[in-house]
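TL;DR need structure tokens for one chain.
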Amino acid sequence: MVFWFFKIFLVFYGLKIWLVFWFFGFFGFLGLGLGLEARIPQLQQCSQSEGSIALALSENKTSSSRSSSIRNFLIPDLSSCDQRKVQKHVALFFYKTGTSFIRVEDKDLIKAFNICRPGVVIPSRKQLAGPLLDECYLGVKQQVDEHLQSCDSICIVTDGWTNVISQPIVNYMAIATKHSFFIESVSTGDQRYNAEWIANDISCVIDGFTCDVAGAITDNTSANKSAWKILEAMYPDKFFHGCVSHTLHLLLKDIMGSNKQWSPFDTLVEFINKCKEIITFFKNHHALNHQLRKNQKEQNLKSLAMPATTRWGSLNRCFETLLASEEILLSMVNGRDFINMAPTNQKEARRNIKVTISGADFVTFLKKGLFILRPIDELILKFQSDCVPVSDIYVSFLNLPLQFETEAAGLLLTEIEIEYIKELIKSRFQFIYGDAHGVGYLLDPRYTGEKLEPKLREELEEFIINFPLDKEIPSQENKIATYRQLMEFFISANGHKARNSFHYKMLVQEQKSPLEYWLINGTNWPLLQKIAKKVFSMAVSSASSERNFSTFGFVHSKLRNQLAPETVKK
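>> reply
TL;DR here they are.
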């Protein structure tokens, strides 16, 4: 009996010991794993310091190789698919930032990638300039094409410029859903930039789209205006006109330029030249410029801005900065040392600068110039957006002359000067005017053509009734139906305006665009909706093309002047 009891005791005791060994063995192994995991950040930190790595290698090569093997075991190699993704995103970074391709071979860049993921392979210079460029270009182009295909209607914007190696380039943009997309650029070579070539080139771009193209915006030259007529004959269901921001810039040049035989603003033109001399003088004299900038910074003022012929709004900034710093400039030129301590060959120039700034009419001319410039520059800034409806152009040119008929205008401008400005505004608008401007003003539920002359209103209504829907001349039944829908739209829109309804407030507060109105509410008038969607898909300016030229200049810079036009485009 005792024997059997002793035997059972030994079996139970042995099982208990086995459980204890199993318990400690399991948690010991788990602790080893957790210890390794906790060790990983230390290994990464060690590998980020080149000096620490060198020291570790010199002190204990075995320990370093063991850490490396553990790291390689814990971080598996990239798959071929992930390697391609890394190379593609690195390539896109180089293309977007304009970084020179040679920098991809920098040793520190390669080390940084390998620290993050051992074995990663970044692209070479040849891959960036060759297959990866084509792959990324085609990938982005496909995304753009898919987006444009999903739009109801798009507008083409085009403009020309001269690149860094003096080659004439024309680029094409597409405006869709409040966004602008680069389509392509064309190197014109020795091709004469006449109306026929412009029309044919724009036609090729339009025909390349399968989605609906509402029309095109171009620069405001005589050749472009002739091209509009050619294109209107080719595409009677599309709209063509010029850039309103460029028109307003030309208006300023008409008023304050010296290209006229006679102008009531000849004195103001001379004053502008004197302002340029003042800015040039201070920029060319280091000590005086340093003193000027120090005083401006103390008063939180901007530095003097030099006006540029091709830069919109630069003359306005010139006058604003001069007027803001007028007291500083006056104190500097009236200082005892401004002329007396100057070299002999500079004294005459300094006297002229002093006479201009100290003159009784210096501030008067600055205020007069700003009074003319500000309302026009505000419109230039407004129309640089891709979201402004085309109907706002007509409204702006209706209201702009009224700003020069106020009491403030009478204090700064003579009657001759006011009438001269109003006549220039009328002339410039007549040059740029296209059917989309008038039709948009008529079909905008905020305006419904309220200030249109009766004859022009009748012509616009006739244009809408005879508008070729689906590229075909409408039948008599469709004409009657379109006219009825037009009358119903006027009744509905004017009713909302009279009641100051919520829908009308949303439009006035720009919480809802005319295009959105016609996409949603326009289903009540389907024939009219087709016309309205085209009109309100039209851009108002070529500002998107101008912005794209900045990107061209960033990519095709003086340091990368050997890029071929096709490579620049990609």
